[in-house]
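User: Please fill in residues for this 101-position structure.
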C-alpha cells in the first residue's frame, strides 16, 4: 500500500483542530435536526396576545398617535408626523400578512 502524502495545509495542527471542531459541530447539528418541535403550538397564543383585535395592538396604535402628535408639536413639521403614520400602516400590514398569515 502506498503512503498517502498529506498536503502541507493538513500538517498544520491548528487546522486539524479547526476541522475536528467543524466535524463535531456538524454531527451535533445533524442530531438536533431530528429533535421534536417544542414551539409547535405557540402561534395561537401569539395571535391571541398580539393579533389584530388584541389590547397590545390597540395600545400600540394609541402610542403611535401620541408620538406623532408630540413630534409634530415639537418640530412643527408635518413630515415627522407622517413618518409615524407610515410606520404605523407598515406595521399593520406586516403583522397581518407576514407574521400571522
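Assistant: Residues filled in for all 101 positions:
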Amino acid at each position: 500500500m502506498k503512503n498517502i502524502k498529506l498536503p502541507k495545509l493538513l500538517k498544520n495542527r491548528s487546522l486539524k483542530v479547526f476541522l475536528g471542531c467543524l466535524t463535531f459541530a456538524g454531527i451535533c447539528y445533524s442530531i438536533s435536526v431530528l429533535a421534536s418541535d417544542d414551539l409547535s403550538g405557540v402561534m395561537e397564543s401569539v395571535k391571541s396576545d398580539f393579533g389584530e383585535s388584541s389590547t397590545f395592538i390597540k395600545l400600540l396604535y394609541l402610542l403611535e398617535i401620541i408620538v406623532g402628535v408630540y413630534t409634530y408639536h415639537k418640530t412643527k413639521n408635518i413630515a415627522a408626523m407622517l413618518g409615524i403614520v407610515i410606520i404605523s400602516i407598515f406595521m399593520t400590514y406586516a403583522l397581518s400578512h407576514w407574521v400571522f398569515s
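For context: The mean pLDDT is 79.
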